Amino acid sequence: MHTVPPAIRREVQSVFPKANLEQLLIVPTCQHAIVDLVNTGERVEGEKDRLLERFMAWAKVVCDQLSTAGHWADYIDPCSGLPMIHTDLNVVYPEVSALSVLMGYQTSNAGCCKVLLHPAWGSAVYPASLFTEAPLDALLAAIQVANAS
Question: What is the pTM for the complete model shown?
Answer without folding.
Answer: 0.92
